Amino acid sequence: MTEHAITFTGENINAIVKVPTNTLLADAAHLAGIDVGQPCGGQGRCGRCAVQVTEGNIRRRSTLRLSDADIAQGYALACQTVVEGDAAIYIPPQEKI
Fold first, then answer.
1. Hey, how many other C-beta atoms are within 10 angstroms of the C-beta on 33?
2. What is the domain count for the chain?
3. What are phi and psi of 79, to 5 degrees?
4. pLDDT of residue 96
5. Which residues on adjacent β-strands are paired with residue 83?
6. Half-sphere exposure of 71 toward its Cβ, with a 13 Å CA cutoff?
7. How buried is 60 (Cβ within 10 angstroms: 0-12 exposed, 13-18 middle, 19+ buried)?
8. pLDDT digits (tens, 9 = 90+) for 9-45
9. How would you classify the pairing of strands 3-10 and 81-91?
10. DSSP 8-state secondary structure symbol assigned to residue 39
11. Which of 3, 29, 67, 94 has the least CB density, counted as fewest CB within 10 Å?
12. Domain holding 26: CATH number?
């Protein structure tokens, strides 16, 4: 099983975790001890788990709550995005989402 290094950064956040291919970003964040708000229970309906992929290989399963501009800036829903390689993820302050 191939593992990938996911680096999380943000306000008071600096963590690296190794996860297998197809791990949800929300699950990777949880393993790194980071709480990403998911009021809709991970259904991809609320958009509150938006994170910014600054580099790396991910696959968005859904972009329902993201605009084309959001996607162009690297935003993805943590509950609907899976790891396909090493990646760097910025977690914005939850109150700004």
1. 10
2. 1
3. -80, -10
4. 56
5. 58
6. 12
7. middle
8. 999 999 999 999 999 999 999 999 999 989 999 898 8
9. parallel
10. T
11. 67
12. 3.10.20.30
- Look at the alpha carbons of 8, 88, 22, 19 in this order and tell me if their dihedral is positive or negative: negative
Let me know: does 43 contact 79? Beta carbons within 8 Å: yes
Within 13 Å and on the Cβ side, how many CA atoms surround 88?
5
Tokens matching residue 1? 């099983």
CB 91 within 8 A of CB 36: yes
- Integer angstrom CA distances of residue 8 from 13, 14, 18, 40, 47: 7, 6, 11, 22, 19
Which pLDDT does position 88 carry in this prediction? 98
Which two structure tokens, joined as six digits, stand for 27? 């699950």
Domain hosting 12: range is: 3-96
CA torsion, ordered 95, 68, 16, 49, to nearest 10 deg: 40
